[in-house]
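Recall the central idea of this unit: under ordinary conditions, the amino acid sequence of a chain determines the structure it adopts. In this exercise we apply that idea directly, starting from the sequence alone.
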Amino acid sequence: MNLKKLKIILFFPLILLILFSLPKLLNLWVDFLWFKEVGYEELFIKTLLAKLTIGGVTFFIVSLATFITLHFTLRFKPTIKIEDDNVININTSKKNNKVFLLTLPSLLLGLFAGLLAATALWEDILLFLNQVPFGINDPVFNRDLSFYFFNLSLFETFFSLTILFLLVIAILNFIFTFYFQGLGNDPIKTVIKRLGYFAIAFFLLLVIGYQLKLANLLYSPRGAAFGASFTDLKVTMPYYYIASTICLLSALSIFVGMRKNNVKIVALGPILLIVIVVLGGIAENLVQSLIVTPNEINKERKYIIRNITMTNQAFGLDKIKQVDFPATANLTFKDLEEASETINNIRINDFRPAKTIFNQLQSMRPYYNFLEVDVDRYKINGNSTQVFLAARELDQKNLPAQAQNWINKYLKYTHGYGVVVAPVNKVTGQGQPLLMVKDIPPVSNIPELKITRPEIYFGQLTNDYVIVNTLEKEFDYPIGNDNAETIYEGRAGIPLKGINKLIFALNKGSIKILISSVITSESKILLHRNIQERVEKIAPFLTYDQDPYLVITEGKLYWIIDAYTLSNKYPYSEPITNTRYQGVNYIRNSVKVIVDAYNGTVDYYLVDKNDPIARTYANIFPGLLKTMEEMPQELRKHLRYPIDLFNIQTTVYKNYHMKNPEVFYNREDAWDVAKELYQENIQMVRPYYINMKLPQSDKLEFLLMRPYTPIKKDNMISWLAARNDEENYGQLILFKFPKQKLVYGPMQIESRIDQDSTISKELSLWGQKGSSVIRGNLLVIPIKDSILYVEPLYIQADNASSLPEVKRIIVAYKDSIVMEETLEEALYQMFRRQREEFPKEEEPTGLSIKILTRQAREAFEKAKSAAQAGNWAQYGEALKELENIISQLENQSNNEGLFNNKND
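Accordingly, the structure predicted from this sequence is:
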């Protein structure tokens, strides 16, 4: 191959690289404009400078090292023997062009190395330089845990890249030796002479590699529990130290062998290392199978204790407060009176049917969609009230086919509109959620839920860019057969003036941005409007919860997103399996992110000052994480303990509540998350939010809770609660039931419901009338020292347009189960039996009033319907029934109501 062709071949990748870089540079400029618009310009610049610096230094080092090694390769004189058919002769023209042939590969390899290092190393290097100590040392090497979080990953990545580029440079040297000089009469000696120093460097690097393997013993899965085990510390650790020493001897033997031109000396060290590796592997297996396995609990006890302790630390379970819950089952009407705030917040709506109802009754137009239904609490008329809240977002995919054009997608249909809010404890006469906020524009008679800025420009379905402030007014909301229009008044957006129009036309691949007559110098482009994408774009080093929720405060809408710091580097901590967080063995919900649904502003708040990872990122990017004190007070009231984190913690705690190593090893007291029946399917009880008073507490709190059962059994053994309110946020409390007492679990209650002749008969009857019965969440409600179980029943007709309706409420307590039309009636029927056990106790007047009021309303409706139909006999019966109810109400009118909800 002649030199001209070779130059063309070598220049071709360079040309491709330049062409490939042009769109990247354009995207980089667009990112800069966007980061500047959202107020995180310094973060962008620091990240870019870190990547450029690391990439540039790596480029220089690798290019120089490659050039120097190739240059020294060509200094050796070629060996030419024409008579030897195996010798490849050198062409003088090759040597005359060696500068070009040395420079171009060096630059290309350096460029590749720089790009790879800039991508793989920038974050690790910044973490290394700004690390915050944990204040906890590992039990084997006595290093602060920050070494494993901030140093080890950097060293491992650097080691891997160094090995990779050493290998590539060695291959290049071999190719150049072969191309320019041939392999001579003794190919083996030629290869050793040319590659010997690379082999020396390789074995010296292996010494570092074995030191890294030593550190990674703390993540060994070999023993009875995760982490360095008996075999790891008694056999593998000495074996790694011996192997490190042999690597040094190998480097020395290669150097001496090269000097003496003796192949046997060169091979001595590497052969010895192979022998050590084989013997080490055999020794590990023999010790594990012959010494450890027959007596595992005694050999591994110390290491199991380390695993238990450090797993609890890593998942924030070491601070769980354990409380004995007697489960006495001696509730009276007086207890219910005192727990009226808890009773009034029992959830009789289920979020899954509620989503269906919201989409059918409140979506208004096909392109509106309620993607999720979230749970939160609001102060309404002075009472903490738990509610369902769902955002009415605009899904452009659901626009009619004829409306799927550029104007509509990017200029016209730009935002969702408003929310729906419903209390979790109230339904209408049709069994559907009672809406506190509804319709378009949003209507509410509750001051705390008034919305003055209902537009949702940034949400979960806003997946594309839009252009605002154009001559084409935006669709705002439907008005009958017409549409209201609007102009965006918010702060978000990059101005489309000057060269920006050309930049974004190229970036978005749309010439219309450049030539459209409706886009003016006042127009702005809104990018990254999906809130998940938006927060990840700004801070990709955090992991974000998949369930953002919307909050109404001061008439505006804000999204709250939980952000986590994760790692798989906590020594001895058991990694998570079978979730989106698989492999993680450390997690903290250290950051809360607030996104303005109208203006798109993003604020990050540090909520866990004790998390070294979050504090390290705060050191790297000063000003990124604001303090909790800087978060508006009204938003702080709506912080929730995230379900994703609670799911992980409750899963890990199934085994890691056991602190005794023998009990843990045998899984004698292993738990499982309680199971329930939903739509005829058995599933684990999902964590659920509830407003209630904790036992021995007088204050109503917003809690996240989940019950446990013993493994492979259905009786309840405990329940774990996470506190959400500001002063107690993040505290975990475990309520343990007496092991000698049977406390029904959710599945046992479900079975008893199925076995109840009256209830099962009703369920079968409803299921045979062209309808299906949907069982809602079976809620476990602790009251005083007792447990109450509540489950709503939905009926849904078997047709596409039907809506699920709350038909009945089932209440279980002790050995009794009742099913009534309302929660009040179910409680009344359940606890009126208590008067036989407590004769002096008076009937709960307020509860009776609530029931009688509903019955009076129904009797009045009967009378009105009978009069309209001219059925005067039925009219007289209804009036008589109404008179009887009014008489009962008069007898109790002077008593203050039990369970009276001030929000009614």
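The mean pLDDT is 88.
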